[in-house]
Fold this protein.
Amino acid sequence: METRTPYDAFLHDTHTILSWMATPVGITCLGFLGILSHRFYFIRGEHHMQAPLYIAMWVLATALISTLSWLVDHGFEYYGPRETGISAILRITAVLNCAFFFPLFTSVAVYRLSEHPLRGFPGPRLAAVSKLWHVYHMLRAKNYILLEDLQTRYGNIVRTGPQELTIIHPDILGVIGGHGTPCIKAPVYDIQRPLVSLNTIRTKQGYASRRKRWDDALGLSTSYIPDKERRVRHFATLLIQQLQASSGCPINMTTWFSHFAFDVMTDLAFGRSFDLAQNLDPTSKLHHAPALLSRGINLLRFFMPAPWIGILCVKAAPYVPVISREWNNAQKWAADMCDVRLEQGKEADGEHRQDAFSRFTTSARRDKDEDSLDRLALYGDAFTFAIAGSHTTAAVLTMLFYELARRPELQGRARREAVEAGLTATVREDQNMMEMNDVVVAWDKLPLLDGCINESLRLYPVLPTAGLRQTVDKPVKVGETLIPPQTIIVAPRWLIGRLESAFEQALDFIPERWTTKPHMVKNPVAFSPFANGRHTCPGKQLGLLEVRMAAAMILVNFEFSLDPGLENQTRVVDQLEDAFTANPGKLEIIFESLN
Ligand code: HEM
């Protein structure tokens, strides 16, 4: 009589269990387990950060079942005919997976459609079931266009996700961002983890001290302003010299403004200029470094609607680099800039020439703020500086010049205003900018230009749909509507800025609404291009200085118009990408020197 070894017993028991799990009773029990896991676990709290863990658990469980089935199959070879086979192994894993996940997902869908606090809000049914609906649409459409389409179909409050409302209301930016708001940043801000930048700190905890570093780094102290102004002016002059050299030919200003903004950002942040404006490629090809950043940030199109996908991709990157190579390359570029700057240490600080990085670390050391000096925090902030400090100003300048180039009369008035403020057309090709034009200009006393900048920011905000927030344990009220707790709120500036209820002739570019015709702004709260409250943009003054200086200096040196080619008339808007920040399409302008 054959004796059974412990291994035989193990195989036998395993076989019994696997067979039982595949019976109707076993499948029903697994199904209940799936439903219970939703009702008692997944229904509560946030899970996006655990996405890699869940996937790993699922892979392990599936591998375990497959291995056990294979062992049973293999073991039985010695005792008789094969009971199973490879197809049966696949079948059992598929059956068990379906038995667990089908009821789980059904429970999720039923809950989201018929029980969730947002069930009464209008919107596409599939959007209410899963954010994968949104990710799918991002493969084909731009978010601001998709949201505009939903606004037309469903109104100004649309359910765009299981837990998400898109709210196009003049008050919403104040409700989610104003001082004392109970709202916090939405889960999408966790995507950069383990890096933690100012922009990605979601709650009050740890925010104030980091904000202090940024405010010190971008300081508006009197000693810093003249240096900052001098350096921005230097790069604006390089740009103007290039424009003079190519006078009369159409120039792709989307690229040239990107290079200008990138130069300013690297110089002010890391004390290191790439001098891209000095070496502009005549083909207007975007330089490798800003292009790398753009490609990286572009992935946010897909990560924004479903942050768990982003977190998965970032985690999977070392094993499957192709998935989020661009995102990681962009982060690595910023980390490398940070490392180089740390190695340079204090030696890189000139007598009057501290960069933001140096001011940041000095401030942190002074206040013994170890958290801000952590390498992952520094990398995170370096990346935020790179994107927030260059993409934004480049986009504003591009859209501003698009509007000015098509309006010769307005352009003329803005030019006269700059001349009257004391700015003269003095940049010549051979001139060294550092000594040039030492006239003192009150950059913030150009009301018409400021009106034009405001109109650009209103119609083409640098964050067209991003800036997601979330209610916490209490509801908030927008107009007459109560927004339940734990709701993610999308407040698309692109659409809010075009609301007729907030701005008269909302679709028209009318700078005077910010100067002589204030009645044309019906609800000032609807205009919040730099955000407000705790998360107000710390780079607002720097960004505005860059835009005002570059714009005014170009205005006094050139007359300019759109390249008359038909496709150029609207391409900058038609091809504008919405990937957290706005990335305008190609804009070709012809400059005629006034010197
Ligand atoms: C005209 C140019 C600019 C515009 C229109 C602009 C706009 C904005 C907006 C709307 C936000 C809120 C983002 C959010 O909700 O996630 C923001 C945040 C931020 N901006 Fe700017 N920005 C500009 C320039 C700059 C510059 C030049 C810098 C830095 C060098 C900068 C650094 C930041 C940072 C660090 C934050 C995060 C603040 C926080 O979350 O508390 N920005 N900006």
Remarks:
- The chain has 24 helices and twelve strands.
- Residues 198-199, 214, 384-385, 388-389, 392-393, 396, 457, 462-463, 467, 529-531, 535, 537-539, 542-543, 547 surround protoporphyrin IX containing FE (CB under 6 Å).
- The CA atoms of residues 364 and 377 lie 12 Å apart.
